[in-house]
Every structure is written in structure tokens, then in C-alpha cells.
Specification:
3 helices; alpha+beta; Jelly Rolls; rod-shaped; 2 domains; four-stranded antiparallel sheet; single chain
Length: 219
Amino acid sequence: MSSSSSSPGSSSGASSSAFSASSVASPWEAMSVTITPDSAQHQRPCEIYYEIAFPSSAADLFCIQFRNYYSTWLTVKQREHDDTRWRTVLKRHRLMEDAHYEDDAQDWHSIKVSEFSPRYSPFTVAALRLYLVQPSSCWLKVELRQITCYQRRKETSPKADRRGNRRAQSTSSSPGRGDELGLQPALFQLDRLTRDIGQQIFTFRDHSLASERHHLYNY
């Protein structure tokens, strides 16, 4: 029995479907789950599976990341609370292109819950099982390594906090209603300047008209 809490390391031979550790460092975090391998200790030809138990809820689960070790297919089954049956939510997901060649036998993979069938119940699931299938007899050991479940980080980012604090401060210190940015003094000065310019224009126009009448009268 093991508890998943640390981020997996990177691999130079990781496949394109892998959810890299660098991509989960900021927006994602590892979930606290209990991972138990099957009791047969991976001795073939027995059924090989890993059971992931969620202590509270799997509603926040985003993906399951692991490093494959010579498994060709993966099937995921769920068990809901107050139920003993295991129902398939992902069937025969391919991990190796060819069961007899080890080119991609140890790649990283990420299984997202969006790939599960509509039967998946995130709010009522108690545990998931990852069943491994390897039809080739070339490999003596088949397993998954460094299994980690990821969820979105629940705390907000510092940038969002700073933006929210600035908005709250500007709203609380605003001199008038609807002045979230505190622009009322500047708008008042602009209005006053506009009025002064308008008054000067009218004065200049009146002076020009008077001068024109005087010129016509003397002519």
C-alpha cells in the first residue's frame, strides 16, 4: 500500500501523451490517495491491476499520470460507494504500439477523466482500478510506476489576489458612486477647462463681430 503525494520525474523517452511534471507544477497539484497493487504481486499469468482509493471524493480528479513498464493496454474500472461491482469506464487504452517491441514500453502517460465513458461518476466513485494487459510472452514483468493523481490547485494565484485587492481599494476610496478608478477630480478639472475654453471662444467671436460692424460702418 502506498500513498501518492509527489510529482513524477521527467523522462527523455516520454510519449507525446505524457502530462509532463513541468506542466503540473503551477496549475496542478497531487491528490492524496491510497494506491494498492494487486495481491498476486504481478506474477503472470494472473490478472494485474492497481487500486486507487479516494479518502474523500474524486470530484476534483483531473488525470492519472504514470510511467508504463511493458503493458500494452490499460482498462480502468470504477467502484461506487455502497457497491461491490466494478464497472468499466475506459476499455483497452493502448500504451504500446506493438506488444512485442519495447520502443515505447517505458513511456510516461496521462489518462484524463475526460477520456472516461459517461458511466464515470466522479461524485460517487470510491475507488478506481487500473487493469494491465500484455499478450506478449517476451516480457517477464509488467507494471505501472510512479502513479500520481492530479487535481487543479484550489488556492488563487498571487496575480489574481493583487488585482482583487487593487479593485477593492479603489472602490472603497472612490469619492463618488460609479467612480471605481477615482477619476472624478480629473474629470472635474477637465470639465472646468472645457468651459473656460468655450467662454474664450465666445468672447473672441463677439469681439470679431464687433470689429466687423465697426469696419462696415466706417466704410
